[in-house]
Amino acid sequence: MKRVMLVDDSDLMRTIQQTHLRTLKLEVIAEARNGVEALDLFGIHRPDIVTMDITMPHMDGLTCMKQILAIQPTTRIIIITAINDPAVALEAMDIGAYAVIQKPFSIARLQEIFETLV
């Protein structure tokens, strides 16, 4: 079973993701509200997959993603963001994101991405 960490400053977004990921039989092992918390929890739990918002307090998602991939390059990071800028999506992919999903996202899109991972 793949282990997932959710990183988003919105409690609602984390809850929505968790609800949908349960239907895919994925284990959500940690949740973080910002990049600093995410790095701490990543060090403890070492998830296989991370969903990551970009705009968050204390440390943005792109900076956090770089640090996570420096620690464990095999981690699959899925960016889930409200930023609708192709340049930001390209930057995320260049850093090493597995996929970029726009908010609001459809359940079908989330399932499609996760099914390719499991």
Describe the fold and architecture:
With 118 residues, the chain is α/β, with parallel strands linked by helices. The protein has helices at residues 11-23, 35-45, 61-71, 86-95, 107-117, and strands at 3-7, 27-32, 49-52, 76-81, 99-102. It has one domain: Response regulator (Rossmann fold). Strands 2-1-3-4-5 form a five-stranded parallel sheet, with helices on both faces. Helix 2 (35-45) packs parallel to helix 3. 30% of the residues are buried.
List keywords for this structure.
5 strands, five-stranded parallel beta sheet, alpha/beta, Rossmann fold, 118 residues, 5 helices
How would you sum up the major sheet? 5 strands, parallel
Order of H and E elements:
EHEHEHEHEH
CATH homologous superfamily? Response regulator
| CATH class group | Alpha Beta
The share of residues in helices is 40-55%
Number of domains: 1
Cα-to-Cα separation, first versus last residue: 8 Å
Instruction: Estimate what percentage of residues fall within beta strands.
Output: 15-25%
Label the structural class: alpha/beta
SSE topology sketch:
Layout: E1 3-7, H1 11-23, E2 27-32, H2 35-45, E3 49-52, H3 61-71, E4 76-81, H4 86-95, E5 99-102, H5 107-117
Parallel strand pairs: 1-2, 1-3, 3-4, 4-5
